[in-house]
């Protein structure tokens, strides 16, 4: 019997736990689900005979140590900053580790020790990072093996609301951590276009979007992520002429979001004095010059070039000009905006989320230029089996199974950019309905 | 004989040293000028019999300790982050300290110990902070003592080029640390207007300027400094309805500078790969969308609403569209821009700098509304006795003398916001030609 320890039974763990319990019958697994709230672990394991829900606070070092020691493999669904602590214990006790988070420098530093211990520290095993790596690398390696030369690689991902549940003018609801949506893009986006470096500051990010079409779903727009350049070495495509990774939103979202950026409403660096006394309208007025008539007119005068009727309608729909009060103490502008949006962009009962990912490739082969588009659309089944939970949890589960079956024999710090991992991963994901559609021109 | 130790004989110390040497004859001072470059200390003391130029590196703790120990008062013209280290030794050895820098939290924490030791830790004794506090507080206290109620306080300061040396389209040259000019305004400007909080994000800062007129010098524009709100408690004017501190530039400067902000050229958070290979034009193109014809057209298409002929002329004058190369390795955008500007905005032989400060007050007195404007204009004498060196160095020197003469008897952490300091300080500054002109309406 193989023993798996899952740390953290949060939202994203539900599909993972179900998958592992399902394969436990044939693979003879014991799945320990550890959470700081026992009821949460119990609820997600549903008295399955292969499951062992336990109460565990990882600040209880002795108990954590004992639980890792009795396992064959640890899955950490904890916040990313906690992973190095867990990874060090896994190295010490010679246990495999799987996470869905980016490889941190601290994690990277454990590579050699992990190899000596004969264990794998498997990271970036979710959706983004995770499925994005696997699906892109499969095509990149295919192109290379045919003797082709990749010239353009663009990749966009969005955690969105499914069309059937899209009933607001923004075409967006919070299907994942709202805070990340509010702060998205702060810093500078760096990418490469036609062999030339390009930088987009935050203040221009949401005005420099690209139109993305996904068959059957209509028009989206993508804004550039902060770091596209490092993917050249990650994917072994140092000679690529254009590389851009971006985030997808429904068409029209970005130009409206840009208003918040221009006003300074996404700033999380200071708290607003007496924020609890502010109405939505007064919150807006903090960022407007004092001259002028009513709030709407002042906003129009101030950001004339960045506004149109459609955007004004979106802002009105949010209640930004209302006198309702959120009564938030010590709020930063970002937190005030987030709270305002959380009320408007919350999922209703029966609402379904949707993950959209699209890779765009251009490559030279035998003197000809080819383009290839590979798109993934995953919709949630319900409020628990969301598209996000499935696309993050299933690859983590599949990779866990592959390691325990000995089909992934790698040791040290790994990500799903290598064939030994991405081929069986993508193959099993397809069987579970997570399948990319390719379109060649 | 009183012994003064000056740490750091940089640019801003020349007028200070001359002032102290001049009063040494009657006051019987010994002025030790310590620098890491002995020649620099020697050059500034010109074999004056009251001067004692020495070589001193403050990382040499034993020697620094000995030098402080043999002095009655220490003046630190070192970078501000070094002051707490010096201050701690001054407390220990019971020596007075004078600096021209803002009171840091570390400095503030020494208040009680300094009082116990019977010494003064005198800070903010230069121009801004320094003369700004003294001159504003004098008027604020006057208004209060008459029974008036201050409603509006705005204060602007600029380190500028004198009109007779102003021969470029920007109306600006570097008369002080260029790096501070490049990074100026990053963050969020916070102020109060008609009783309401107002926030300006960096991206809008240089578009929301106020026109400022200074008699005989024409039109300037002021952009808001980061922190105006804290001056309510600093100046004891908690009930003021409008408070704004700002920086002065010649009219037209800010809308042109805004182009750099919009492009992302003032970003100091990352280095540009292969920056040494970039021409000025290629540097600009890093920040432009790739579509379009020549560089100028692309810029015009991109920032149409933020550009006009006058701004384009200013940019052209800087050589921004040229193919010359600065050959800077590992440059951030901000450093690249700074280096480009340093060449164009450098002082020529004979160029004279100028300090402009203007306070604007509005107050209620006996049922009537009064406005008062108090302006200071100081021009440099030459390349050594610059307006900046005089307005920073002279108040430091005067306050030093006042402490040694026992005319300032305060102990603990102090700034020139109190009568005991600002009255004799302003009075002596007037005699040296640093005089505010008041205009009442």
Give a topology summary.
The structure is a homodimer of 441-residue chains.
Chain A lengths: L1 E6 L6 H14 L1 E7 L2 H8 L5 E5 L5 H9 L3 E4 L6 H11 L2 E4 L5 H4 L2 H7 L2 E3 L8 H15 L3 E13 L16 H6 L4 E6 L2 E6 H4 L4 E5 L3 E7 L6 H4 L7 E9 L2 H11 L16 H6 L9 H8 L6 H9 L15 H12 L8 E13 L2 E12 L7 H18 L7 E3 L4 H13 L4 E5 L1
Parallel strand pairs in A: 1-2, 1-4, 2-3, 4-5, 5-6, 6-15, 7-12
Antiparallel strand pairs in A: 7-13, 8-9, 10-11, 11-12, 13-14, 14-16
Question: If you had to describe this structure to a student in words, what would you say it looks like?
Answer:
2 copies of one chain form a homodimer. With 441 residues, the first copy, chain A, is α/β, with parallel strands linked by helices. Chain A has a domain of 122 residues: NAD(P)-binding Rossmann-like Domain (Rossmann fold, 3-Layer(aba) Sandwich). Helix content of chain A is 36%, strand content 24%. The first copy, chain A, has 17 helices and 16 strands. In chain A, helix 1 links the parallel strand 1 and strand 2. Chain A is globular. The model of chain A has no long low-confidence stretch (mean pLDDT 96).
At the third CATH level, what is the topology name of the domain at 2-123 in chain A?
Rossmann fold
Query: In CATH, what is the class of the domain at 2-123 in chain A?
Result: Alpha Beta
- Which structural class best describes the helix and strand composition of chain A? alpha/beta
Q: Over the alpha carbons, how many angstroms does the gyration radius of chain A reach?
A: 23 Å
* Principal-axis shape of chain A: globular
Whole-number average pLDDT of chain A?
Answer: 96
What count of helical segments of chain A does DSSP give?
Answer: 17
> What is the terminal-to-terminal distance of chain A?
49 Å
Task: Let me know the CATH homologous superfamily of the domain at 2-123 in chain A.
Answer: NAD(P)-binding Rossmann-like Domain
- Protein chain pair with the most extensive contact, residues per chain: A-B, 32 and 32 residues
Give the beta-strand count of chain A.
16
The largest sheet of chain A is: 7 strands, parallel
The CATH architecture of the domain at 2-123 in chain A can be given as 3-Layer(aba) Sandwich
The residue fraction in helices of chain A comes out at: 25-40%
Bin the strand percentage of chain A: 15-25%
In spatial order, strands of the major sheet of chain A run 3-2-1-4-5-6-15
């Amino acid at each position: 019997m193989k023993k798996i320890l899952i740390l953290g039974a949060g939202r994203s763990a539900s599909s993972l736990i179900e998958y592992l319990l399902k394969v436990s019958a044939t693979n003879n697994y014991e799945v320990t689900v550890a959470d700081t709230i026992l009821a949460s672990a119990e609820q997600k394991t549903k008295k399955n005979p292969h499951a062992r829900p336990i109460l565990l606070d990882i600040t209880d070092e002795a108990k954590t140590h004992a639980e890792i020691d009795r396992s064959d493999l640890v899955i950490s669904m904890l916040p990313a900053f906690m992973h190095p602590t867990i990874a060090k214990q896994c190295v010490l006790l010679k246990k495999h580790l799987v996470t869905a988070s980016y490889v941190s420098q601290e994690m990277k530093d454990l590579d050699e020790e992990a190899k000596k211990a004969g264990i794998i520290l498997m990271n970036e095993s979710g959706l983004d990072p995770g499925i994005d790596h696997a699906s892109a690398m499969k095509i990149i390696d295919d192109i290379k093996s045919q003797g082709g030369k990749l010239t353009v690689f663009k990749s966009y991902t969005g955690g969105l609301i499914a069309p059937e549940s899209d009933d607001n003018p923004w075409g967006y609801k919070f299907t994942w951590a709202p805070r990340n949506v509010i702060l998205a893009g702060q810093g500078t986006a760096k990418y490469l276009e036609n062999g030339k470096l390009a930088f987009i500051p935050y203040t221009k990010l949401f005005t420099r979007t690209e139109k993305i079409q996904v068959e059957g779903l209509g028009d989206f727009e993508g804004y550039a992520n902060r770091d596209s350049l490092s993917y050249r070495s990650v994917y072994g495509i140092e000679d690529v002429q254009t590389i851009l990774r971006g985030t997808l939103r429904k068409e029209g979202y970005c130009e409206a979001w840009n208003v918040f950026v221009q006003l300074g409403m996404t700033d999380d660096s200071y708290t607003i004095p007496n924020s609890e006394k502010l109405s939505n309208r007064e919150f807006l007025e903090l960022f407007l010059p004092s001259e002028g008539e009513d709030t709407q007119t002042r906003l129009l005068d101030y950001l004339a070039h960045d506004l149109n009727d459609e955007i004004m309608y979106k802002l009105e729909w949010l209640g930004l000009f209302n006198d309702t009060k959120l009564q938030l103490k010590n709020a930063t502008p970002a937190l005030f905006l987030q709270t305002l949006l959380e009320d408007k962009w919350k999922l209703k009962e029966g609402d379904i989320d949707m993950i959209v990912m699209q890779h765009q490739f251009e490559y030279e082969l035998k003197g000809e230029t080819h383009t290839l588009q590979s798109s993934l659309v995953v919709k949630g089944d319900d409020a628990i089996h969301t598209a996000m939970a499935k696309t993050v949890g299933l690859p983590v589960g599949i990779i866990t199974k592959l390691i325990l079956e000995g089909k992934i024999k790698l040791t040290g710090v790994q990500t799903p950019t290598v064939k030994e991992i991405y081929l069986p991963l993508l193959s099993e994901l397809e069987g579970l309905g997570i399948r990319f559609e390719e379109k060649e021109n």
